[in-house]
Specification:
Blueprint lengths: L2 H9 L18 H7 L36 H16 L9 H10 L6 H8 L3 H11 L13 H8 L1 H17 L6 H25 L3 H10 L4 H11 L8 H22 L4 H8 L11 H19 L2 H6 L5 H5 L3 H22 L8
Length: 356
């Protein structure tokens, strides 16, 4: 399975689409618009089936938990060097390839024509091949195959194509952090998990689910160049401690995330959240999406720790108030989040195989 197909199957799993006939514009149909509207919040009458609580798994160091962890003297030296480089701007912010950037910018336009998107994708033969393959996969195929790039773009939809472009590039960059494979895998596990959790929470909060998915997937984007910086600073050693990685993330990932979001021309709300989500109350520009990012962080952490009592205690978190989710709806939502987390873990196990 190609990388593009793998990512779509992992992150945009939906029911198979109906047959689609090529149309000259990517303007969403009325049916598409209805599908993107927030779902009705789940109620006790529609309570999801019980899902066994997950066992503890390896997870990234959480910023709230690393301050008390000590690091060896040599890692203190590395940390000082990393801080000097971040402050001086002496690190690489990965760029989106020109084709990817053009696709992202055009796909953000609701009036963009499918033919124009297809013409951009056509510049990259590999992307073109993967797009057609994915459009005709079980996930998206209809009764008639997509025979042209334009038909493939229409079938996937511009919004999913935009999210895919971001995810694909982020995955490529993370995979370069040689010597830190375990942290790269853990980052990807967390990103995909939080994306799925964000979609569940968005349904209850009446937020746009596609935008919420991107917030979950990309709000920690600052960790991407930091993994690369750590690898370079420590000469790609494989024995870097969790405490060092955690401290680098805690101190710099929002600052670097804001810079990378600007470089990648992420949507306004997402760029704001990338720069401020742990202290979500301080984010006055995008308060609900910041609360969403903070909440899914907490949900993913307790699920990764396998801490069932602590997980269900999260229903008291202030983020729920900001998101407008009533207390009586939170228990049902948390149960749905357990199932979403379990699905994300099953899917992310395939991460190592298709590294670009």
């Amino acid at each position: 399975m190609g990388v593009l197909s793998w990512i779509l199957n992992r992150f945009f799993r939906r029911a198979p689409a109906r047959a689609v006939v090529a149309v000259p514009s990517a303007r969403p149909s009325a049916a598409d618009a209805r599908r993107r509207e927030p779902r009705e919040p789940r109620t006790s009458a529609a309570e999801p089936a019980a899902t066994p609580f997950p066992s503890a798994i390896t997870h990234l160091p959480h910023p709230d938990r690393v301050a008390v962890e000590s690091i060896p003297e040599r890692e203190a030296v590395w940390l000082d060097a990393i801080e000097r480089r971040v402050v001086a701007g002496d690190f690489d912010l990965p760029q989106l390839p020109s084709t990817t950037l053009a696709v992202v910018e055009l796909a953000a336009d609701p009036d963009a024509a499918a033919a124009r998107l297809a013409a951009l994708v056509e510049r990259d033969p590999v992307l073109s091949s993967e797009l057609l393959k994915t459009a005709n996969s079980v996930l998206f195929s209809g009764t008639a195959p997509a025979q042209t790039l334009q038909q493939a773009v229409v079938r996937l939809g511009a919004r999913q194509l935009r999210g895919l472009a971001f995810a694909l590039q982020m995955k490529r960059v993370v995979s370069r952090a040689k010597g830190l494979t375990a942290y790269a895998d853990s980052f990807w596990r967390q990103a995909t998990s939080m994306a799925k959790l964000a979609r569940e929470v968005a349904a209850a909060a009446r937020l746009d689910e596609d935008e919420a998915f991107l917030v979950g997937l990309l709000h920690d984007i600052g960790k991407v160049p930091l993994l690369d910086l750590i690898a370079r600073e420590v000469n790609q050693r494989s024995d870097v401690s969790r405490a060092l990685v955690g401290r680098v993330f805690a101190k710099f990932h929002e600052q670097v995330g804001s810079q990378l979001a600007t470089r990648w021309s992420l949507p306004f709300d997402l760029a704001q959240v990338a720069g401020c989500h742990h202290d979500f109350a301080a984010n006055t520009a995008s308060p609900r999406f910041a609360a969403l990012a903070s909440l899914v962080h907490g949900l993913d952490l307790q699920l990764a720790l396998g801490s069932e009592p602590s997980f269900y205690e999260l229903r008291q978190r202030p983020e729920f108030e900001v998101l407008g989710i009533a207390p009586e709806a939170r228990g049902v939502l948390l149960k749905a989040c357990v199932a979403a987390f379990q699905a994300a873990q099953a899917e992310s196990n395939a991460f190592a195989a298709p590294r670009p």
